[in-house]
Amino acid sequence: MQKQVRLFFAGHLVFLDEAKVSFMPVLKILRSRPIQRTVLTASLCLSSSIAQAQVIPDSSVGTIGNIRGNTADITGGTQQGANLFHSFSEFSLTPAMVDSARFNHDTSIANIITRVTGGSVSRIDGLIQANGNANLIFLNPNGIISGEQAALNIGGSFIASTADRLKFGDGTEFETRSTTPPLLTISQPIGLQYGATPGTIRVEGSGHFIFVNPDPFEIVRAFRPVGLGVGTGKTLALMGGRVELQGGNLTAEQGQIEIGAIADSTVNLAPTSSGWAFTYPMNAAFQEVVLAQGSSADVSGTSGGRVRVQARDVQILEGSTLMALTLGGGTGGVIQINASESVTLRGEFVFQDFPYFPSSLLSEVNLGASEQGGDIAVKTGRFLAREGTKISSSTTGAGKGGLISIEANTIEIEGDSPNFGSTLLSAGSTGGETGGDGGLVKLNADTIRFANSGAIISTTNGSGAAGSVEMTARVLDFAGGSTFGASGISVETFPGSTGRGENVSIVADKFRLTDGASVRSLTCGSGGAGVLTLNVNQLQLSDNASLLSDTFGSGDAGTLTLNVNRLLLTSQGYISTATSGAGDAGNLTLTAREIELRGSDAPFPTGIFSAVNPGGTGAGGILSIDTQRLSVLNGAQIAADTLGSGNAQSLSITAREIELAGSLPQRRSGIFAGALIGTGAGGNISVKSDRLAILNGATISVSNFASQNQVPPGQGAAGSIDIEANSIRFNNGSINASTVTGGRGNIELRSQTLTLLNQSLISTNSQGNEPGGNIVLNTDFLIGFRNSDITANAIDARGGKVTVNAQSLFGIAARDQLTDESDITASSELGVEFNGVVQINTPDVDPTRGLVKLPESVSNSQQIAASCNQSQGNQFVITGRGGLPEDAGQPLRGGTVWEDLRTPTAEKIN
User: 786 by DSSP, 3-state: which?
Assistant: First the structure.
């Protein structure tokens, strides 16, 4: 059996078995309060290259450093008012050498101001202590490295900076590049002035060891090392050129952590109740901030503090996190990042093959907390979150979640992690029965892209409402998904929840959703789903992308409102509001200048839908469309169907021009409000248009069986169709209110011209024991050719009624039975005595009405001396309405109908 050695390491119990190391968390918290650090010794010492510790005062301000054991006892210095100045040529602390430094001073001191004037980097790998509540300001322009054993035990705030000098209110400076005795002052410090190449600040450690407890959901911070920590409500500031945290931890419970990376500029300082406030110049030479290897900056507490990062580029990598959790009754904390060029979140913290935590920004209300969570605010040029990272202002307590606000030129949310799922922005409520409302996610950018399951998720599993989403951009691009879900936006209420879903608002010039991406509002509980509102110039959905507002529970689905200039749906792209439960589907309102729906031979249709799904008992939603031009092509559909016991609702379309064209083996293009499979009644269709064309197998249908008979017929009554248009043209198209069972459907058309060509059909036929429906046609001209029919027939019942009010009928006539001609019928297969009624109302016209007697008798043709050659000379032809007056000086008069009474005959033309 191999010998094992154990030691405490960064708050965890570690077993060393030769070269193999295993890990397990300690079962109780091993860290002390934030203002203290318990130095844990190991029973095994590993050899390493250790730098010599040096705490060497220079002679400029009278600093005295006495070494007592492993501690440097620092006294002396120069006091001016409440300021105490110290100066060192070198300052470093290293374990096994001088591993702590104690500043001893009068308790009246407010600010201990320390500089390093030599050329060496300060490595702090031990404990820095100070009496009383004094702030400690530490300047070394060459660089500062805080090791894994670094700790603070001071009563005030701590500023570590690689600035060249500290500026004061009276104009004096405490500079680091000179050992000349400075002119010291009693004034407050007001600024940090940086040279062109300030040194780096680096904080090292072994990571934060934060993880998530899934049930009940809680972020567990018990094993997180304090690292560099200040007291409750104080400020911890790292103000360097480049600032790095490599597994390091920063702690300021309910206080402030400030990380600034800047060069060749001055940062202004001002004292506050929580330490210091920092103000940066507008166009400074900002530098880079990197958090890697599971680093953390944590201001969580009973009331949250603030984490602020100011830089050119900010990278939060390998499971590193900025954290401002609300743990009690106080208000939430704030996370603020300002980066002139970019912010990147990527990766996860893994220790000994155990995945602990994704890279994250967290300002959440924790379990048991009662007040509102804090905000996360990011301003940058390019924002990138990927590989399962998380940004959350959710609430698991009774308090309301906070705000996530990201402003950038480009925002990209993409990818997932096998361990932590999708890259997510979240502002939901997961506090159960006592949970507070979720927060708000607000994105504003020129271009926003969600890809490969990157998403905004806002949910509720209890009484609190889910969070809201607001998004504004010139270009939005949502694409793809993974096993963890679709890219896009999802606002959901979980089964058993009573809280409502909240709203999603999107404003964009161009919005494209592809490859399964979605924006959806769902309820699976008793609370209603949220409202989806889109104001977009160009909206495109393709390849199974969707906009959804659905209910699977007793709560109603939310309304879906679209205001667009041009809408294009292709290849299974669809917009839907539906119910699969007891709640009602939401209403869908679409206003656009141009709408084009273009289907494909894929399994599911492209289109716009309001549906009662199988098992749904709630009512469908009202579907309203207002546009200049509507094209529904190649099997695409607009439908307000029911496939459950709930009734479908109305579908209304107002458009200047409508084209319905094309069909596929599995479906037809068209407009539907059918009653299929279930017992619910079909909806009604209302269409108003200047020009309506139904072509090449397309249809408008309120039948209770599918247009291509793919599913069983429904038992509910068919709906009605009401269409008003200047011109209605059919070419192998149909309008159908036929039934198998259930009540009959009715059709009413009002149009100046109604043309049916090539086996077109208007039908209210009954294929069961219900009578045929009624058809009313009001038109100036009814034209039907090539076996086009108008039918209200029945099989096991009485035929329906067809009423035609027209000036004239051309090529179509009433008949008792269907023929190969164009027919109007209301027959019944039970016999002629069960036939319905065909009533055609046309004006009584006398062909001789309006004729006048010629003033002269017609000459005898035999007296004509010569005639014109055929096909030569002039012609005078008049056709159409009205006629010529007998005197050329009289005005034209109309109102007379011209009708060609000749029978068409076939003629062969060579």
Answer: coil
Q: How confident is the model at residue 627 (pLDDT cuts 50, 70, 90)?
A: very high
Residue count of the chain, please give it: 910
For residue 216, count other CB atoms closer than 10 A to its CB: 11
> Which run of H or of E encompasses 204?
strand 201-204
Amino acid residing at 624 = S
d(CA 88, CA 99): 17
- The string of DSSP letters for 631-677 reads EEETT-EEE--BSSSSPP--EEEEEEEEEEE-B-SS-B-EEE--BBS
DSSP string across 508-535: EEEEEEETT-EEEEEE-SSSPPPPEEEE
With helix as H, strand as E and coil as C, how does 489-501 read?
EEEEECCCCCCCC
CA–CA separation, 594 and 51 (whole Å):
73
Residue 164 in contact with residue 193, Cβ under 8 Å? Answer: yes
Phi, psi of 691, deg, nearest 5: -135, 125
Query: Residue 164 — left, alpha, or beta (φ > 0 → left; ψ -120 to 50 → alpha)?
Result: alpha
DSSP letter string, 710-746: -SPBPSSPP-EEEEEEEEEEEES-EEE--BSSSS--E
The first and second tokens of residue 374, run together, are 């804090």
Query: Chain centroid to CA 774: how far?
Result: 46
Closest by CA to 766, choosing from 721, 797, 735, 803, is: 797
Residue pair 347/360 in contact (Cβ under 8 Å)? The answer is no
3-state DSSP call for residue 298? Answer: strand
Helix (H, G, I), strand (E, B) or coil at 434: helix
Distance CA 431, CA 906 (A): 81
**737-767 tens-digit pLDDT:** 877 665 567 899 999 999 999 999 998 887 7
Tokens in use for 289? 């901030």
More confident: 626 or 907: 626
Average pLDDT over residues 834-860: 70
C-beta of residue 431 within 8 angstroms of C-beta of residue 470: no
* Cα(681)–Cα(703) distance, integer angstroms: 10
Quick one: which of 160, 146, 86, 145 has its CA closest to 117? 86
Q: What are phi and psi of 411, to 5 degrees?
A: -120, 125
Burial bucket for residue 830 (CB in 10 Å: 0-12, 13-18, 19+): middle
Q: Are strands 468-479 and 504-514 parallel, antiparallel or unpaired?
A: parallel
Q: Look at 441 and 39; give whichever has higher pLDDT.
A: 441
Beta strand residue intervals within 119-168, DSSP E: 122-124, 127-130, 135-139, 144-146, 151-153, 158-161, 165-168
Q: What are the b/e assignments for 727-743, b being 16+ CB within 10 Å?
A: bbbbbbbbbbbbbbbbb
Expressed in percent and rounded to 5, the helix, strand and coil fractions of the chain are 0, 50, 50
Q: Which two tokens stand for residue 664?
A: 């596929």
Question: What is the reported pTM?
Answer: 0.84
471 in Cβ contact with 448 (< 8 Å): yes
Q: What is the mean pLDDT of residues 776-793?
A: 94
Helix H, strand E, coil C: the string for 466-491 is CCEEEEEEEEEEEECEECCEECEEEE
Beta-carbon neighbour count of residue 223 at 10 Å?
Answer: 20
Res 5 pLDDT > 80:
no
Query: Cis omega before residue 216 (within 30°)?
Result: yes
Q: Cβ(340)–Cβ(381) under 8 Å?
A: yes
Nearest-CA neighbor of 147 among 227, 55, 70?
227
CB 92 within 8 A of CB 118: no
Note every long-range contact of 7-14, with CB atoms under 8 Å and residues 24 or more positions apart, other chains counting: 7/40, 7/42, 7/43, 7/44, 8/40, 8/42, 9/40, 9/42, 9/206, 10/148, 10/205, 10/206, 10/207, 10/209, 10/225, 11/209, 11/223, 11/224, 11/225, 12/209, 12/223
Is 453 within 8 Å of 415 (Cβ atoms)?
yes
